[in-house]
Amino acid sequence: MTHVSDDPLSIRLSRWIGSWASVIAPASMVSALLFYFGYVSSRAQYAYFGVDVDTIGLGTQDYIMRSPQPLLVPLLVLTLLGSGLLTANNILRKRAVIAVGQAAGARTRRIRRLVRLAILIGLFELAVGVVLLFLYAAVRNWAGYDLVTPLLITTGGALVAYSSHFSSFLERIEEGQVGAGEVEPRPVDSSFVNDPVPSRRMVQILLYILVAASTLWATATIAQWSGRGLAQDTARHLDSLPRVILDTKERLFLRSPDVEETVLPAADGQTFRYRYRNLRLLIVGRDRMFLVPEKWSASNSTLVVPFGDSTRVQFQFQNQPP
Predict the structure, then answer these.
(1) Do residues 86 and 136 share a domain?
(2) What distance, in Å, lies between the first and last C-alpha atoms of the chain?
(3) Within this chain, do residues 99 and 110 fall inside the same structural domain, yes or no?
(4) What pLDDT does 2 receive?
(5) How far apart are CA 195 and CA 197, in angstroms?
(6) How far apart are CA 312 and CA 294, in angstroms?
(7) What are residue 248's DSSP bridge partners?
(8) Could you give the 3-state DSSP secondary structure of residue 261?
(9) Residue 64: which of 102, 90, 94, 29 has the closest Cα?
């Protein structure tokens, strides 16, 4: 009797599933993050016009397609910062190995002082960020709270975690030296990279989780600001939106003085009695349109027009002659 584990087909199938799982899992995570940031940005954007984004009826694909706008700057900053930190990390490690290997005591002490200073700075930033968390009720109206607080926690936590790891890295390099007079250090064992002390490693892991959560918070804040900025830019340039002529069967009693209302003449078969001009199309939802006055003010209103027999819409445009 042949075991399932010995079946070549089952082995190939398990490998195929494993390879696809390694691709699908990161892709699902990236899609979830893109959806989240697109939703945060869109929510802030349409809240400026008094519209709850959930009433529009946008789908998952819509939010994912809207995510590049708010994520462009954070991704560029994180990419450049990550490249710079990796380069600096390689330089620092090489210099530390050379300093210890050449028995350069003064240089090693200077490196240790810098590491301790970095830990103190990181702890201070981390403490300030945690204090701001507990003072949320008192300082939540501060405009920069949602960005400054996570940035302090991110930079402080990252500085403490990396400096602690680098300090233990120095200790293990020194333990691996045979003699103080050697010019070239012995190859550093791979165990130097991982801290053998479980408690220290657990603290570093928790700090990295804290840094990741704070980075997510800061990026979400930037996405929210991006959406609001996009809404303000749209409000300043409403002429870029499609112009709409709206016919209705009943009077709408609009509060905006800039919208022009005209009573249509009675005619056989004519069911629409009122026409409204000076409207712009903000966005089209699943079964409705959202219209704003052509001249926007911060205390204006957004008109929600459902698709159906009760309304008739014309899109007005003026192009160059062909």
Answers:
(1) yes
(2) 79
(3) yes
(4) 44
(5) 6
(6) 19
(7) 274, 311
(8) strand
(9) 29
Cα distance between residue 63 and residue 190, in whole Å = 44
38 located within any domain? no
Beta-carbon contacts of 279 under 8 Å, excluding residues fewer than 6 positions away, are 243, 244, 245, 246, 259, 291, 292, 293, 294, 303
Q: What is the pLDDT of residues 116-147, one digit of tens each?
A: 898 899 999 999 999 998 988 888 888 888 99
Domain that holds residue 190: 62-236
Query: Do 200 and 245 have their domain in common?
Result: no
Asked if the structure places residue 117 within a domain, the reply is yes
Cα–Cα dist 39/108, whole Å: 50
| Phi, psi (degrees; rounded to nearest 5) at 194 | -105, 135
- 293 near 253, Cβ under 8 Å? no
Q: How far apart are CA 192 and CA 189, in angstroms?
A: 6
Residue 23: how many CA atoms within 13 Å on its side-chain side? 5
Decide: helix, strand or coil at residue 277: strand
On whether both 155 and 199 belong to a single domain, the answer is yes
Whether residue 66 is found in the same domain as residue 201: yes
Mean pLDDT, rounded, of the chain: 80
Query: Which residue shows structure tokens 């408690």?
Result: 199
Dist. CA 239–CA 317, nearest whole Å: 11
**Do residues 242 and 280 both lie within one domain?**
yes
Residue ending a domain, among 236, 269, 291, is: 236
CA distance 202 to 239: 56
Token match 């002429």: residue? 239
Q: pTM to 2 decimals?
A: 0.73
Question: In this structure, is residue 41 part of a structural domain?
Answer: no
Domains contained in the chain, number? 2
Instruction: Identify the burial level of 229 via C-beta atoms within 10 angstroms of its C-beta, where 0-12 means exposed, 13-18 middle and 19 or more buried.
Output: middle
